[in-house]
Structure formats: structure tokens, C-alpha cells
Q: What sequence folds into this?
């Protein structure tokens, strides 16, 4: 059974809790291809769109926070003593203001979390950036699912 079929079964059985679990797993996917778009868009016409956005945004953000923790552990394990890494880290810190924009893009799961943890970006800045970006992304998914279904029928 693929992830989308499993997640849709989870959502149809548990509703909003299923959305939370599926989106959280997507957030900590560690680069695995776990497409959350068809799940969120698919249930948007059946469940309350506001709550779908709320639970999907919260779960996706928390999944990225777990990935952020993995990135911090990876930094402490692999990169602590590397001088060349510190040069790259300094350059990327200069451009961290673009993090909310990257959170909107459908990048592979946990990419932002792991890389931000490795770069030791401020946790509060990371959390707010991801929350803002995922709110916009999940709102777009819900709008496509909700209005797309209503336009067709």
C-alpha cells in the first residue's frame, strides 16, 4: 500500500487526527516521497477547510521541528570540527531571511528542518518561518481541493 492510499484510509477513519498523523509523518519523512497534497486537497471538500488547514499546518510544522532536532544532532556528530563547513554556514546564515519562502515550496520532506538544524538557525525564527510558510502552503492545497471540487460539480 502506498503512502497516499494509507493516509487517505487513515483520514477517512480518524478525520482530523488522521490528517495530523499523515501530515506529521510527511513532515518527518527525511526525504522520502510522501505526497501530502492529494490527501489535503482530497479531504478539503468533505471536512471543514479551516480545521484541515489548522491540523495540517500544525503537524507539518512539528514534523519539521523533529527534523530540525535531527539536523542539530547531525551537526554535533559530523560537522563540529570542519572549517570548510563553517564558511558555508556563515554564507547561508546571511540568507536565512528567505526561509519562510522556502517553507511554501513543496520541497522534499524535512529538507528545511535538517539543513536549518545543521546550520543552527535560531529555533524561534525557524519555527515561525516554517509555520508561516506551511500555513500558506496548506491553505493553497485546501483552496485547490475545496474550490476545485465545487467548480467541477
A:
Amino acid at each position: 500500500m502506498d503512502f497516499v492510499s494509507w493516509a487517505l484510509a487513515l483520514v477517512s477513519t480518524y478525520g482530523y487526527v488522521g490528517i495530523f498523523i499523515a501530515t506529521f509523518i510527511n513532515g518527518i519523512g527525511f526525504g522520502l516521497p510522501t505526497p501530502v497534497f492529494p490527501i489535503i486537497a482530497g479531504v478539503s471538500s468533505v471536512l471543514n477547510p479551516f480545521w484541515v488547514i489548522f491540523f495540517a499546518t500544525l503537524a507539518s510544522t512539528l514534523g519539521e521541528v523533529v527534523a530540525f532536532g535531527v539536523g542539530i544532532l547531525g551537526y554535533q556528530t559530523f560537522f563540529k570540527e570542519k572549517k570548510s563547513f563553517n564558511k558555508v554556514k556563515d554564507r547561508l546564515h546571511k540568507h536565512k531571511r528567505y526561509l519562510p519562502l522556502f517553507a511554501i515550496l513543496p520541497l522534499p520532506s524535512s529538507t528545511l528542518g535538517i539543513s536549518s538544524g545543521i546550520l543552527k538557525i535560531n529555533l524561534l525564527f525557524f519555527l515561525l518561518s516554517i509555520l508561516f510558510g506551511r500555513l500558506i502552503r496548506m491553505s493553497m492545497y485546501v483552496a485547490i481541493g475545496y474550490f476545485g471540487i465545487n467548480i467541477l460539480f
